[in-house]
Design goal:
alpha+beta, 2 domains, 4 strands, 8% strand
Length: 239
């Protein structure tokens, strides 16, 4: 932290401590207004001062028991959050690597399987002999009534595949090897979306991260409780 940053940081700490002092002054006749000031001081401390890289509280913060409490709590929660976030990212990376490995294995298996698929010329010969062809849950055959090739996809929808010639059979074979679904498909059949990576460990970590976030969000309320306690002690001492 350079001299300018240090100076700006110290001024900010003094401003926050000054707000807390003001809250104590007005608390006797305006408790609600004092509570609002405490909330603002806590938000400023947690969102501006602590992320600036301050691992040790500045002296204006150390001098105020409420602000010191908030600083220590926020640091503890931030450390816990970062630790759990690191575990969460590590688990997600593990799942992504496993997914990438499965894709590679699937691609290798697919390449091996493709070598066993009959050629388009062999398929054309079977079609001319009156045989139907099955590939990737599709069927293809010659239908005299339409004078060409017709197919049925995995959803039971029929489609026309053109005249019976080598070019059209080759196009059909290529589409099957590419995993293309010919013909109509139900509207809810999504294809090739990026997978959602999740596991019981990730779900547990997500829950823990949310709980920590909720605790951080509740720091202002906890600070107000501490503030009220310290104010009550001050009143008791004065009386």
């Amino acid at each position: 932290m350079n001299a300018f940053d240090a100076s700006a940081y110290e001024r900010l700490m003094l401003s926050i401590a000054g707000d807390m002092a003001l809250a104590r002054v007005i608390c006797k006749f305006d408790p609600r207004g004092a509570s609002v000031i405490v909330d603002q001081a806590v938000v400023s401390l947690c969102t501006t001062a602590i992320p600036a890289g301050a691992e040790v509280p500045a002296w204006p913060i150390r001098a105020d028991p409420v602000l010191l409490f908030v600083f220590e709590q926020d640091q503890s929660l931030s450390n816990r959050y970062n630790e759990k976030l690191g575990e969460y990212n590590a688990e997600r990376n593990r799942l992504q690597l496993e997914h990438a490995q499965r894709l590679q294995e699937d691609a290798m298996a697919r390449a091996k399987w493709e070598t066993t698929v009959p050629s388009a010329r062999s398929m054309l010969g079977d079609l001319r002999a009156g045989k139907d062809i099955e590939l990737r849950n599709h069927t293809l055959g010659f239908e005299a009534e339409v004078g060409g090739l017709t197919g049925t996809n995995p959803y039971g929808c029929d489609y026309f595949a053109g005249e019976m010639n080598l070019s059209n059979v080759l196009l059909w074979r290529t589409a099957m090897l590419a995993g293309t679904t010919l013909g109509s498909s139900p509207p809810d059949q999504a294809e090739d979306f990026e997978p959602e990576f999740s596991s019981p460990a990730m779900e547990s970590l997500e829950s823990e991260l949310y709980d920590i976030y909720q605790e951080q969000e509740g720091l202002a309320g906890m600070a107000n409780i501490k503030f009220d306690e310290s104010f009550a002690k001050t009143i008791a001492f004065e009386t």
